Amino acid sequence: MATTTKALARTAAATSSATLYTMPNTSTVTVVSNIVLANAATSASTATIAIDGVTIVPAVSIPANSVVGFDMKQVIPANATPKIITGFASTSAVSIHISGVEIS
């Protein structure tokens, strides 16, 4: 099995739910290891992240000009449906960084 460390998502947040990552095929297992939310706005913002339709970061508040990080080991199995990570924030001034590994 090959294990590839990846930046699964690195983007400015949309203000409505958007796909941040899609598993590349049906035989890959993905492990999310870290989520970082950076708020460049001058006021507090919120962000929500879901894996396969299950919210894991529920409208978390991010103070102005601050960073919030989550270390985790969340597995997206090869047989998962829909095999995606989605997210959004209250402002596009929030950046979303998601790291992990793909195992194929």
Structure, described:
With 104 residues, the protein is mainly β. It is built from no helices and 8 strands. A 4-stranded antiparallel β-sheet has the order 1-8-3-6, with no helix packed on it. Strands 2-7-4-5 form a 4-stranded antiparallel β-sheet, with no helix packed on it. The radius of gyration is 14 Å and the shape is elongated. The chain starts with a strand and ends with a strand.
Care to give the gist of this entry?
By secondary structure, the chain is mostly beta strands. Helices cover 0% and strands 66% of the residues. It is elongated and about 45 Å long.
Keywords:
66% strand; mainly beta; 4-stranded antiparallel sheet; 104 residues
Give the quaternary arrangement of the chains: single chain
Classification by helices and strands: mainly beta
Provide mean pLDDT, rounded.
Answer: 95
Q: What does the largest sheet look like?
A: 4 strands, antiparallel
Order of helices and strands: EEEEEEEE
